[in-house]
């Protein structure tokens, strides 16, 4: 597992050098430091991989109930495992997955995260079995969780432990491909209300929505594959959220980004249906707006059109030189 550790199924007592051990059914696993001269036999990594996003991210099964998540990393970023632990400590009512262990492998510029599998189905998987009332109930519960999150405040754009925010290409201008590797996340400055307003005005050629002095903490990626639900009751009429996963985008954001993100981000599309795949985007954003969060969709549309025009001009200029 990278250059630092290897994972093995053990029998008997745990090795003295084990960093962490965990039970999975009748089996026990241990994470151990990589020896200088390795004597263990590596497993078949392709057969246990169930998600692959090229050089940026991948997911593997370890046994039946644990997942290993590997993500590309850049200097200044927060580890997702640290985010989840901090949310669990500060906001215990928010349902998060159990972190077994997380670490950074700087030699590979990769973060590693061992998570216990969560119960239930993703909202995307459960979608066709849910009624409209149940879907709205899920959206309202997520809005309440969002309100709880936003009670945590910061005077700058940062993660919950004070690291740099990364990614979010829908809000920030991307670096030219010839200056930044495509697989590597882009870290953002510690914007304040004033500096973020200036930045957005500069790249979009118009005043952005008002940015409050304080930013609210927000997951920022509660798409239908990142929300897990369980249906119960005598007639399967009740539904509850069992977990919210994928916390790498979580940070302190402007209040208007909270309802805007699900309204415009492709990550909120449903994969499981062909008819109205945008339905979750609409429902969740509407519920967040009803909870008091602004959604400056028209500003965002104009900003994206302007950005696309500028990129096209720059590409034409590069081709002519």
Structural commentary:
- With 321 residues, the protein is of the alpha+beta class.
- The chain contains eight helices and 14 strands.
- The strands form four sheets. A five-stranded antiparallel β-sheet has the order 4-5-6-8-7.
- A hairpin with a 3-residue loop joins strand 4 and strand 5.
- The longest helix is centred in the last third of the chain and has 24 residues.
- It is globular.
State the major sheet: 5 strands, antiparallel
How many helical stretches? 8
Contiguous low-pLDDT stretches (5 residues minimum) are none
Q: Biggest sheet, strands in spatial order?
A: 4-5-6-8-7
Helix content: 25-40%
- CA radius of gyration is 21 Å
Strand fraction equals: 15-25%
Helix and strand sequence? EEEHEEEHEEEHHEHEEEEHHH
* Class from helix and strand fractions: alpha+beta
First-residue to last-residue Cα separation? 45 Å
Please describe the topology of this protein:
Elements: E1 5-10, E2 20-24, E3 27-33, H1 45-48, E4 49-53, E5 57-62, E6 66-72, H2 80-90, E7 99-105, E8 110-116, E9 121-122, H3 123-126, H4 132-150, E10 153-154, H5 193-204, E11 215-218, E12 227-232, E13 238-244, E14 251-253, H6 255-264, H7 279-290, H8 297-320
Antiparallel strand pairs: 1-3, 2-3, 4-5, 5-6, 6-8, 7-8, 9-12, 10-11, 11-14, 12-13
What are the key terms here?
321 residues, alpha+beta, five-stranded antiparallel β-sheet, three-stranded antiparallel β-sheet
Quick rundown:
The protein is an alpha+beta fold. It has eight helices and 14 strands.
């Amino acid at each position: 597992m990278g250059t630092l550790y290897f994972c093995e199924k053990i029998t008997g007592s745990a090795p003295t050098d084990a960093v962490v051990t965990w039970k999975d059914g009748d089996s026990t696993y241990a994470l151990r430091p990589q020896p200088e001269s390795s004597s263990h036999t590596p497993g078949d990594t392709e057969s246990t991989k169930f998600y692959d996003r090229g050089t940026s991210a991948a997911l593997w099964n370890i046994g039946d109930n644990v997942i290993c998540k590997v993500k590309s990393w850049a200097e200044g970023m927060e580890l997702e495992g640290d985010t989840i632990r901090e949310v669990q400590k500060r906001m215990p009512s928010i349902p998060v997955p159990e972190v077994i262990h997380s670490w950074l492998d700087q030699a590979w510029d990769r973060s590693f995260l061992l998570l216990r599998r969560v119960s239930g189905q993703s909202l995307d998987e459960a979608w066709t079995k849910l009624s409209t009332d149940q879907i709205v109930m899920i959206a309202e519960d997520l809005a309440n969780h969002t309100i709880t999150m936003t009670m945590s405040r910061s005077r700058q754009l940062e993660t919950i432990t004070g690291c740099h925010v990364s990614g979010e290409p829908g809000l920030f201008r991307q670096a030219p491909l010839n200056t930044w590797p495509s697989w590597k996340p882009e870290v953002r400055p510690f914007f304040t209300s004033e500096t973020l307003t200036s930045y957005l005005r500069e790249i979009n050629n118009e005043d952005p929505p008002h940015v409050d002095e304080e930013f609210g903490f927000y997951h920022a990626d509660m798409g239908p594959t990142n929300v897990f639900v369980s249906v119960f009751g005598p007639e399967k009429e009740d539904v509850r959220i069992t977990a919210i996963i994928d916390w790498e985008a979580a940070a302190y954001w402007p209040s208007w980004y909270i309802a805007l993100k699900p309204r415009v981000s492709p990550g909120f599309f449903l994969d499981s249906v062909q008819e109205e795949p945008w339905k979750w985007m609409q429902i969740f954003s509407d519920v967040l707006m009803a909870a008091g969060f602004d959604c400056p969709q028209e500003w965002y549309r104009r900003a994206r059109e302007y950005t696309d025009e500028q990129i096209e001009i720059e590409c034409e200029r590069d081709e002519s030189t």
